[in-house]
């Protein structure tokens, strides 16, 4: 079953790539409109050293920011669940920060943290942190009021309830948040790099546009997309193991 | 009515309190304006050229709404088609997934070439970011409907269309709304990023101008506008959800 | 893309339905893509637009601002925009080398618009002092100008650290880097405000024999071939607007700020004045605004060739076309 659907997926991808190739070659589209797939693959090979170095920078930013964001998000949600009085004060502030679309923070973050790696990490942590914070909080709150009362009547404390009841209930939602956040982390890193950076895939894209090398733009995007899918797959695989263990 | 008024009053009180805290913290701790200007300074900047901010707000809101509406419609249709035609789902869904790993901003020039320097170009990006979560959640929602219920309706002589509109779609609505709430913020992101590809009006334009002129006050003014729009739109979707899903459940 | 290409191909004149009441002349629709966000650097275009000079010249013009990650050459080559104000001689070289079908019809800034700035009280007094220092610059042309300048002082690539510069001059203000690149009309203003004019020392490329004219007016080869009168009409209206903006800087800034009201006025007035100086400098004094100074362009070309920024010599006669300008009487072009 899953074998056939995978085969269909591959078929669909091949079909679209073939259509792309034929369109680009057949209409002899210039590279600034749409380069052919084979041209892009050729560029990836040709610039593999530069692209690999850039992928390492972007990957580092994304993964570091992701780790910080995930820890901060889960930590903050835990804190707010355990310390109710804090919640009333902090939650509105966090929601206010989150109501600003994440890209709108990027200019400010660039001015504050500079053009280097740290501004990208901050942006990724911000984007990932809120995604996971909101899923974790929703998960922790998902428990039934009556179950909480029941456990309390058995003498369970706040922490006991959290550990036995809230955390297990929240895990699927946290896991979903962690998965969704992978792709976001790379996109946010790249978008921020394009506004200002010393290196990375976004920087390569920016430079390639100013140097009028559109095949390289596509090559960098191909690498970015592959990196996203790999990260997504890795987190998904880890998650299956982890949940299986529990 | 009274309760609504109370809630509005409380909200207003909260906003005023937050504003006072902001102002107080900046003054008290002597925070450099380069990091965080006083709120009053930011509001003064908005009051100095209210027209620019108002026009930007309207423009960005229009782009967001069009993109969101199109993304919702296409997403739901996609979800329905994929639900009915697993072959198409298996072939196209992975491609959709890949499409979402592409940072649109990299294709600024392409978007301009294809759609011109129009409001539509921005709406297209908002659409691009919105349609995917709606597709996935519609499919998830439809798949979560118990097939035995559908079988039961069918035994009563219900047509597939009736089953879809009376059972499956209403049951999928809560899932769909989860995606719509996400789409509300994503479409705004899309509209703002779209405005970075050369335009005169919009919150994204104000953000860029402020950034490249290193004007932190103007930057915060634009951020406030973005927050206002983000909150408003999210609240609108949440309100619709309460009304529609409630109505759906009553059926 | 296809749609726009078709549009350009089928209705080369893309005649607009609007009829001017007075002259009953049909207006041609066209767009101008700027190289950057709306600011006083482009004041003349906005003056010409708002005073109706383009309309009088038969063009229904829309001005589209630029932005990060948008390349004017690309948009003009593809037909998405009719006219472009693009990076400069350097980006025209790059575009022609990659076979983008664009032609330069005029040059706005006759001198190199950027300078390299250090602190007046710092250790850098001459170009030779750049050894071992950290420099930030734009990797889109300015980097090569700096390399050329430093080569004259006997320094080569490994003798200093060169980093890409973007977004902010703050690292220089915070003393994290020794040298920063600034356009005379934009970043220099921010630096003056944060560090103080007297605390800055500038190294000017033109003082070292390197001149890079920038801010080039470009059209596609197709437009240049099929609609030369329109290009001339565009330049005539543009120069009209600029002559007014240069004479009355305040009005120029007003025109810009009516489009982008949140801009900082003192900054824009400074920009207006400094950008104006670049426009009337060099060959423009004798040959008028937007003059294409061929010897200077040739020198810039040879410089890039020497530094292997462009790999093969370009046909400059094809890339730079002065005929549109020359169709306008010189008296109308002089600022």
From TrEMBL, chain A:
Pfam family, any one: BPD_transp_1
Membrane association type: Multi-pass membrane protein
InterPro entries reported in the protein's UniProt record: MetI-like, MetI-like_sf
Keywords: Cell membrane, Membrane, Transmembrane, Transmembrane helix, Transport
Domain ABC transmembrane type-1: 51-233
Compartment list: Cell membrane
Gene Ontology CC: plasma membrane
Gene3D superfamilies: MetI-like (1.10.3720.10)
Transmembrane spans: 63-83, 90-115, 121-140, 186-206, 218-238
BP GO annotations: transmembrane transport
Record-linked PANTHER family: ABC TRANSPORTER PERMEASE PROTEIN HI_0355-RELATED, ALKANE SULFONATE ABC TRANSPORTER-RELATED, MEMBRANE SUBUNIT
Family note: Belongs to the binding-protein-dependent transport system permease family.
Name under which the protein is recorded: NitT/TauT family transport system permease protein
Organism the protein comes from: Roseococcus suduntuyensis
TrEMBL record, chain B:
CDD domains: TM_PBP2 (cd06261)
Keywords for the protein's UniProt record, in alphabetical order: Cell membrane, Membrane, Transmembrane, Transmembrane helix, Transport
Pfam families to which the protein is assigned, alphabetical: BPD_transp_1
Keyword Repeat found: no
GO cellular component, one term: plasma membrane
Membrane topology annotation: Multi-pass membrane protein
Database matches in InterPro entries: MetI-like, MetI-like_sf
Domain of life assignment: Bacteria
Signal peptide location: none
PROSITE patterns tied to this protein: ABC_TM1 (PS50928)
Biological processes, Gene Ontology terms: transmembrane transport
Subcellular location(s) of the protein: Cell membrane
ABC transmembrane type-1 domain: residues covered: 57-235
Transmembrane stretches, start-end: 7-31, 64-83, 95-117, 123-145, 176-197, 217-237
Family, similarity comment: Belongs to the binding-protein-dependent transport system permease family.
Name assigned to this protein: NitT/TauT family transport system permease protein
Organism per entry: Roseococcus suduntuyensis
Lineage: Bacteria, Pseudomonadati, Pseudomonadota, Alphaproteobacteria, Acetobacterales
Automatic annotation (TrEMBL), chain C:
Keyword hit for Transferase: yes
Keywords for this protein: Iron, Metal-binding, Pyridoxal phosphate, Thiamine biosynthesis, Transferase
Keyword presence, Iron: yes
Biological processes, Gene Ontology terms: thiamine biosynthetic process
Pathway membership, UniProt: Cofactor biosynthesis; thiamine diphosphate biosynthesis
Transmembrane residue ranges: none
InterPro entries named among the record's database cross-references: NMT1/THI5, SsuA/THI5
Pfam families: NMT1
Gene Ontology molecular-function annotations: metal ion binding; transferase activity
Record-annotated SsuA/THI5-like domain positions: 40-248
Recorded catalytic activity of this chain's protein: N(6)-(pyridoxal phosphate)-L-lysyl-[4-amino-5-hydroxymethyl-2-methylpyrimidine phosphate synthase] + L-histidyl-[4-amino-5-hydroxymethyl-2-methylpyrimidine phosphate synthase] + 2 Fe(3+) + 4 H2O = L-lysyl-[4-amino-5-hydroxymethyl-2-methylpyrimidine phosphate synthase] + (2S)-2-amino-5-hydroxy-4-oxopentanoyl-[4-amino-5-hydroxymethyl-2-methylpyrimidine phosphate synthase] + 4-amino-2-methyl-5-(phosphooxymethyl)pyrimidine + 3-oxopropanoate + 2 Fe(2+) + 2 H(+)
Family the entry assigns: Belongs to the NMT1/THI5 family.
Subunit structure: Homodimer.
Function: Responsible for the formation of the pyrimidine heterocycle in the thiamine biosynthesis pathway. Catalyzes the formation of hydroxymethylpyrimidine phosphate (HMP-P) from histidine and pyridoxal phosphate (PLP). The protein uses PLP and the active site histidine to form HMP-P, generating an inactive enzyme. The enzyme can only undergo a single turnover, which suggests it is a suicide enzyme.
Name of the protein in its database record: Thiamine pyrimidine synthase
Organism: Roseococcus suduntuyensis
Upper classification of the organism: Bacteria, Pseudomonadati, Pseudomonadota, Alphaproteobacteria, Acetobacterales
């Amino acid at each position: 079953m899953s074998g056939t659907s995978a085969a269909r997926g591959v078929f669909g991808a091949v079909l679209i790539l073939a259509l792309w190739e034929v369109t680009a070659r057949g209409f002899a589209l210039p590279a600034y409109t749409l380069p052919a797939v084979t041209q892009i693959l050729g560029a990836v090979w040709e610039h593999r050293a530069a692209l690999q170095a850039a992928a390492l920078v972007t990957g580092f930013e994304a993964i570091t920011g992701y780790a910080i964001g995930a820890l901060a998000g889960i930590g903050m949600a835990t804190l707010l669940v355990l310390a109710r009085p804090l919640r009333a004060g902090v939650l509105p502030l966090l929601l206010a920060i989150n109501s600003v679309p994440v890209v709108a923070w990027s200019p400010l973050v660039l001015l504050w943290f500079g053009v280097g790696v740290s501004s990208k990490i901050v942006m990724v942590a911000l984007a990932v942190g809120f995604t996971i914070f909101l899923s974790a909080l929703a998960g922790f709150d998902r428990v039934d009021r009556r179950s909480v009362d029941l456990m309390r009547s058995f003498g369970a404390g706040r922490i006991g309830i959290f550990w036995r009841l809230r955390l297990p209930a929240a895990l699927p939602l946290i896991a979903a948040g962690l998965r969704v956040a992978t792709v976001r982390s790379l996109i946010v890193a790249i978008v921020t790099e394009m506004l200002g950076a010393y290196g990375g895939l976004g920087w390569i894209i920016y430079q390639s546009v100013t140097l009028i090398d559109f095949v390289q733009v596509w090559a960098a995007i191909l690498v970015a997309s592959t990196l996203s899918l790999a990260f997504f797959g890795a987190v998904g695989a880890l998650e299956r193991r982890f949940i299986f263990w529990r | 009515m009274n309760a609504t008024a109370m809630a509005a009053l409380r909200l207003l009180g909260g906003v005023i309190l937050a504003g006072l805290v902001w102002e107080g913290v900046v003054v008290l701790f002597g925070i450099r304006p380069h990091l965080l200007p006083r709120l009053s300074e930011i509001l003064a900047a908005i009051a100095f050229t209210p027209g620019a901010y108002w026009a930007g707000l309207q423009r960005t809101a229009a782009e967001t709404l069009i993109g969101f509406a199109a993304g919702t419609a296409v997403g739901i249709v996609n979800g329905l088609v994929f639900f009915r035609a697993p072959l198409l789902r298996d072939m196209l869904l992975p491609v959709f997934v890949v499409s979402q790993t592409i940072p649109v901003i990299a294709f600024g020039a392409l978007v301009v070439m294809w759609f011109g320097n129009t409001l539509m170009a921005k709406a297209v990006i908002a659409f691009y970011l919105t349609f995917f979560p709606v597709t996935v959640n519609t499919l998830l929602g439809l798949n979560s409907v118990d097939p035995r219920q559908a079988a039961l309706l069918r035994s009563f002589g219900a047509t597939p269309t009736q089953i879809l509109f009376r059972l499956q779609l209403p049951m999928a609505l809560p899932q769909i709304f989860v995606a719509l709430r996400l789409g509300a913020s994503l479409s705004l992101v899309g509209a703002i990023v779209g405005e970075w590809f050369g335009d005169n009006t919009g919150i994204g334009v104000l953000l860029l101008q402020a950034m490249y002129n290193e004007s932190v006050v103007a930057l915060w003014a634009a951020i406030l506008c973005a927050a206002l729009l983000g909150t408003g739109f999210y609240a609108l979707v949440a309100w619709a959800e309460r009304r529609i899903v409630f109505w759906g459940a009553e059926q | 893309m296809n749609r726009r290409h078709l549009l350009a191909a089928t209705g080369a004149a893309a005649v607009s339905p609007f009829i001017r009441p007075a002259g009953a002349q049909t207006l041609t629709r066209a767009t101008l893509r700027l190289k950057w966000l709306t600011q006083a650097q482009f004041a003349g275009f906005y003056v010409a637009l708002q005073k109706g000079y383009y309309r009088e010249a038969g063009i229904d013009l829309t001005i589209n601002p630029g932005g990060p990650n948008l390349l004017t050459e690309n948009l003009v080559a593809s037909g998405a925009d009719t006219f472009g104000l693009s990076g400069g001689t350097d980006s025209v070289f790059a575009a022609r080398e990659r076979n983008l079908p664009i032609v330069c019809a005029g040059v706005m800034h006759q001198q190199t618009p950027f300078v390299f700035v250090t602190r007046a009280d710092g250790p850098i007094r001459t170009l030779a002092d750049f050894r071992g220092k950290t420099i930030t610059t734009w990797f889109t042309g300015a980097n090569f100008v700096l390399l050329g300048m430093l080569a004259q002082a006997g320094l080569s690539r490994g003798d200093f650290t060169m980093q890409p510069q973007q977004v902010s001059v703050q690292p220089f203000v915070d003393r994290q880097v020794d040298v920063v690149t600034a356009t005379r009309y934009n970043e220099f203003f921010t630096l003056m405000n944060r560090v103080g004019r007297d605390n800055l020392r500038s190294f000017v490329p033109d003082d070292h024999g390197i001149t890079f004219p920038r801010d080039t007016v470009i059209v596609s080869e197709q437009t240049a071939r099929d609609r030369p009168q329109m290009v001339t009409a565009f330049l005539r209206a543009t120069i009209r607007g600029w002559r007014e903006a240069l004479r009355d800087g305040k009005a120029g800034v007003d025109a810009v700020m009516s489009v982008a009201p949140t801009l900082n006025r003192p900054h824009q007035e400074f920009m207006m004045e400094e950008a104006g100086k670049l426009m009337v400098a060099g060959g423009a004094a004798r040959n008028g605004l937007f003059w294409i100074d061929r010897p200077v362009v040739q020198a810039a070309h040879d410089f890039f060739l020497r530094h292997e920024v462009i790999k093969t010599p370009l046909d400059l006669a094809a890339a730079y076309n002065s005929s549109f300008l020359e169709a306008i009487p010189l008296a109308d072009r002089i600022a």
